[in-house]
Structures are given as structure tokens and as C-alpha cells.
Amino acid sequence: MGIPSDEVVQIRHADVAGEPTVVTVSCPDKTGLGCDLCRVVLLFGLNIVKGDMSTDGKWCYIVLWVVPRRGRPMAWHLLKNRLSELCPVTAPFCFDTAYLAAACLQDDVVPRVFLLKLYCYDRMGLLHDVTRVLCELELTIRRVKVSTTPDGSVLDLFFITDVRELLHTKSRREEAYDKLESVLGDSLTSCKIDPASDDMCSCLQPSASLTPAVMEQMFSTDVIEEQASGARCNGSTISVTMDNSLSSVHTLIQIQCGDHKGLLYDIMRTLKDCNIQISYGRFYARQNGSCEVDLFVVQSDGKKILDQQKQRALCSLLRMELYRPLRVAWVNRGPDTELLVANPVEVSGKGRPLVFYDITLALKNLHKRIFLAEIGRHVVEDREWEVYRVHFGEEHELSSSLRRQIVDGVTNMLMGWD
Q1: What gap in Å lies between CA 293 and CA 400, rounded to an integer?
Q2: DSSP readout, 167-228?
Q3: Is 418 helix (H, G, I), strand (E, B) or coil?
Q4: pLDDT by residue (tens digit) across 242-284?
Q5: How much is the pLDDT for 104?
Q6: pTM score, whole prediction
Q7: Contacts of 70 (CB under 8 A, 6+ apart)
Q8: Torsions phi, psi of 255, nearest 5?
Q9: 3-state DSSP helix/strand/coil percent for the chain, to nearest 5?
Q10: Is residue 87 within 8 Å of 26, Cβ to Cβ?
Q11: Three-class SS state of 145
Q12: Structure confidence at residue 3 (pLDDT)
């Protein structure tokens, strides 16, 4: 176990260029901490190539070996700050159970929502450039609605929150204005950030519900479970097994699969949402794209997973989440056809980071203009999903080969296979 210290997060860079940076977290434990840490690592555009974690239920020690993705600037000091903010306040050297219980019950502050309204002239990659600026400013996109008029004018409405919680100040808003103007240049007509009222939020709800055909196509558990059984992902077969014979107090979950962007996050969020607690785990991604994961876990009551039905259900869920952590498909909406991307929302209400960033980047690389775009949340079979709609507004119908190219391009970007 780690030794308590004032510095709960340490970042050590490799002596050799290209080698992983080591991120170490040592702090009081809390439920879902591993998931939250992996989510921030994903948000900062880092790939986890190796990981070790252990906890005694009071103190946890996590080590992640990470490498930046190509083309993404890395602000290591901000990463350290954001990881530190997730950790319960470091206990006094002689901490007690009451302190640790209080630390685990820290409530997340609900961030204030603002509306960014942009008027622009359309150009290739405009929406991605705006999204990139917001990410660099640590402004989180909660909802978005983009519309383009026939004369090429664009109205972008972004419901955003500020990680730094400073957007109510004039200086922070001016920082955003200056950054947007420097990147968008003459394309930008005007921009304004105001606090979002409840009426504004209600106006930006999804404009259309999901049809039964769409839900069957994208969210059918039976179909996806059948596809995931024995499926190959990134060249590797997905295998999830459980073993209760190697430990008297823990169930061992062993996973072998192909790597993808956010793999460890997908495993952690699935276990967190199922109230499965990790006591010890290790993760390793090989250079050939295969991954191995060993996790010693217990249920929320501290006992092993002995019920075979629960074992089968959890293994099946993990296989599905590793096979299709995001859903990408073309769907019909009346006379139009649009691209839909969906990702599950954590039980805590948090969505997957950088999905809209990756979608817009993939479409920019494919030289496809976005005519309409929208982000909304839908509940399907008691599970909440974040759904991204993209319409290209082309007068002629897209060919089947071009549709496949777009789906493959967006999927590869989201999964980190580009």
C-alpha cells in the first residue's frame, strides 16, 4: 500500500523519449475512484498501456503508465490538478474510520450551466475547431445544437460547464472569446456566453425521440450479446471469465481482448455501475494490440460473486461493453438519413469524454460538412444513453460506400484505431 503524503498524485516522466509517463495516485479509497481517474485520463487524451491498483478498503494505491496520443497537446500540470481533485482529502497521519467514511461521502458539486451562442460563416471543419477550443479551455459540452442556413450561416448553441468554475467572471469569458476568435478568424461573426436559464435548457432537449426501429438497431441487448459472443475486436477474441478457486475472499475476473481508446475506463465504469469493488487489479496492453486484465473483486457486501447467474450476467455485460462501448449507425428519420452515435451514461450521470470531439475530427478528416448536429439523452430499457445526431444536408443521397466510409472513419476515431 502507498504511504500517506500531502502529494496524492505524482507524475514521473520517462528518461527516454517515447516511453510511458508514470502516474501514481495514493489516497484514501472511495467507491468508483478507479473509474473516475480513468475517465480523466481519457479526457486528457492519454492511452493507458499498463496499470496496477490495490486497496485495503481504506487506502488505495494506483499506478498508471500512460502515453499521449498523436497530435494532442498535453498539459501535465492540469492533469495532476484534476486527478488530485477526485481524490478524497488526504487524511491526517492517524486517520480513523469516521474520517474515511466522511471522505467517501463527499458530494459532487453540481456545476453551473452556461449557454455559448456562436454565429459563424460555414467552412470545412468549423464545428471541430470550436469543439477543440472548448476542450482546451476545459469547458465541458453538456448539450449542443447546430444549424446551418441555406446561405451558409451557422448558429451554434453549446450548453457548457466550466471545470474551473470561473465562467461567471468577465476575465474567463473574455479568455474564451479571444481563443475562439483566434482560431475561427473571419468565420466568426459574433459569440456570447450567458448563464443558462431553466427555460433555455428545456428548449435544447432532443428534437426527436428514438423510433423502435432505431432502438432495435442500436440498443438491442440480445443482438449485441450474440454478436459479442466469440467476436474479435481489434484482431483479438474477447474473453471474460471468473474464477473463485484462487482466493478465499475474492473473485478473479480475467479479461483478454483487443485494445481500444478508453478500454480500462469501460471496464471500470461497468464494474462501478454494477457495484463491484476492486481490491487488486493489473492491466497490460501489448504492442500487437491485445490486452490482459486481472481483477480481484468483491460485491458491495464484501463477499465473492458466487451466484452463477450473476457471474454469467456480469461476464456478458463486460463482453458487450468491450465489443461495442459506443454505437455508430446510419438511421432513417422520415425522408432523411442521419448518422447516430450513442454511448452509455454512467449511473452517476457522467457521459463519456471527447465523443463529440472525435466525431467532428473524423468528419473533418473525411472533408464532410455538418449541416445539423444535436446531443441529447435518452433512456432505453432503464439505461440512459447520450445520443449524437449528425445530418449532412446534402441534396443527393449518400452512396452506400460513402456511408460505410463515414461509419468506419467515425468508429476508428472513437475507438483509437485511426
Answers
A1: 38
A2: TTSHHHHHHHHHHHHHHHGGGEEEEEEEEPPHHHHHHTS-SSPPPHHHHHHHH-HHHHHHHH
A3: coil
A4: 999 999 999 999 999 999 999 999 999 999 999 999 999 999 9
A5: 46
A6: 0.90
A7: none
A8: -125, 130
A9: 30, 35, 35
A10: no
A11: strand
A12: 45
